[in-house]
Amino acid sequence: MLSTILVLLVAVIHIYIAVLEMKFWDQPRGLRVFGLSQDLASQTKVLAFNQGLYNLFLAAGILVGIALGVPQLTIFIVACVLVAGVVGYATGIKSALYAQSIPAALALLATAASL
Known about the structure:
mainly alpha; elongated
């Protein structure tokens, strides 16, 4: 039960990130969250939309894994989120560790403990 809640939390986080990137990238909320200037956000809006779509795919993969009862798929997608957060952190996006890697690691640990 705890593992499912944590895995769902990872999915919700990625839906939120996707919405920020796809809809609010160049809006005040997106500028604040991502620390962007209006000029940079305007120049990278199309790239952010694409990036948001990938985050939406991660959330969808988690939800499909849960819906179909395929824990291997869910574990794989959550592990991908963990790696993405570590790479984000290593390349200068310090918030990725807290927004992606730590929730994913907790979800994976809870899932492993429930198997």
